[in-house]
Structures are given as structure tokens and as C-alpha cells.
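If you are new to this repository, start here. Below is one unmodified record pulled from the training split, so you can see the exact layout before writing a loader.
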Amino acid sequence: LAGVLAMTRARLEIGSNGIRVRSLSVITWLRADPATIASASADSVSPLGDFGGYGLRYSLRGKGFVTRSGPALVLRVPHGADIFISIADADLPDALAAVRRLLSAATNLG
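And here is the target side for that same chain:
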């Protein structure tokens, strides 16, 4: 029960440490290094239909941290599984812009 509660309280963090999904400031569910990401976009996910359940999941579609049906931030990984992170409608534009800024900065440094 505590694990489920921690998953539902997860936060998307986008910053100099890359892209992470964390709970309680100590549990890191998912981490993505900007150097491994080709692009970011938005899509729609269904936890049961696309990933067979909720939480950190793997499927033919990619790797996902899915806690709800609806919008998802999608990180395209050229030589690996794409990453799907479910996110609230209202938060998606800001998250997408932040990831694109991070990817642009990483490209300019490398």
C-alpha cells in the first residue's frame, strides 16, 4: 500500500540532473539522461491497454511510468525503449517546453 501511495505522489523533475520521476524526494522511479534522448513529444496513454498496468512498466510501446489514462510526456530514445510519463493535462505544455530546453542545452554543450 505504501508503494502505491508513493507512486501516486510521484513528481516529474526536469533539470541539470536530467529527467526524473521521484517520490518522497528519495525514491527515484525513472531517470533519463538528456544525452540519450533524441526528442520529446506528447501522446496519450492507457495504463492497462498500453502497459498492462500502473506504475513503472515495460511493454512493446516502450518504458512507462503511468499512473493514469490520458496525456503523457514521451521521450524518444533512438537506441532503446521510448519513455512514457503520464502527466496532468495542465502540466504537459510546461513539461514539454522544459524538456525541449534541456535537450537544446545538452545539444549545444555536446
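Two things worth knowing about this chain: The first strand starts at residue 11 and ends at 15. Residues 54 and 67 are 5 Å apart (CA to CA).
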